[in-house]
Amino acid sequence: DRSHRGIIAVSGPDRLEWLHLLLTQHVSALPDGGATEALVLDGQGRVLHHMGVAHVGEVVYLDVEAGELGELLAYLQKMVFWSKVEPRDATAELALLSLVGPQAQAVLAAVGVPLPEGAAPLDGGGYVRRTRGPGVADLVVPRQALGEWWGRLTAAGARPAGTVAFEAMRVAAVLPRAGLDTDDRTIPHEVGWIAAAVHLSKGCYRGQETVARVANIGRAPRRLVLLHLDAGDERLPVPGEPVTLEDRAVGRIGTVVQHHELGPVALALVKRSVPVDAE
């Protein structure tokens, strides 16, 4: 149950062209049923917001970290100008469930929901979206039907799991979470968001110059890595703590979890010069 995530609905005839000018992803021709990821950057190319994107039934849905929703929505509303578009907070209407694991597609089939290539509407409202990483599919369902969908999925064989389990699988897959594994200096290249959330051939978005410069002639100063923690009974580090090598700070800790096979692990942003086998 990841219904704590915020959801923004963008409607109106200009929705795709308008979002295309604001996001890092190429969405001007995103078909009905299309799904992707995207970022909003600042003028220096640093990540402000990361979001899942789904185009369903003449509405573009953006799901984001709960703490990002207010700032992102305010930015979108400020950028409307003369465009025929209406961004609004749809979090009270829709809730997100993530289905994880090798039997996920079979569970979806058992409840009558084919796994789409991108996104598809659900009977009764909401949509299903194929995802990457630890999740197989996200079901964005009417919030008043959240309990009903949870019951249908568990009756079809899904085993309930908490966000601790989801976060452990996300860390093992080395997938960042905005605001936790990123800081105010993070650029998309450092955390693996170029392939997933940035279209390198499109222009006309804020921060494009930094993205193009690093992609064409440079390398990102940091990279996201998986740390194996030799913790024992000691206190685990917390997000934001420094990563040190030979008594000097070389990075920052992000998400810290206990994984069922890997033990205590964490994501960290470290200087690119740090060897991957360094202690």
Which tags fit this structure?
single chain, 279 residues, alpha+beta, five-stranded antiparallel sheet, four-stranded antiparallel sheet, 7 helices, globular
Q: Could you characterize what this model shows?
A:
It contains seven helices and 13 strands. The strands form three sheets. It has a five-stranded antiparallel β-sheet with strand order 2-3-4-1-5, with helices on one face. Strand 11 and strand 12 form a beta hairpin. The chain is α+β, with helices and mostly antiparallel strands and 279 residues long.
Secondary-structure map:
Elements: E1 6-11, H1 15-22, E2 35-41, E3 47-56, E4 59-64, H2 66-78, E5 86-89, E6 94-100, H3 104-110, E7 119-121, E8 127-130, E9 135-142, H4 146-155, H5 163-172, H6 194-197, H7 208-217, E10 222-228, E11 242-245, E12 248-259, E13 263-271
Antiparallel strand pairs: 1-4, 1-5, 2-3, 3-4, 6-9, 7-8, 8-9, 10-13, 11-12, 12-13
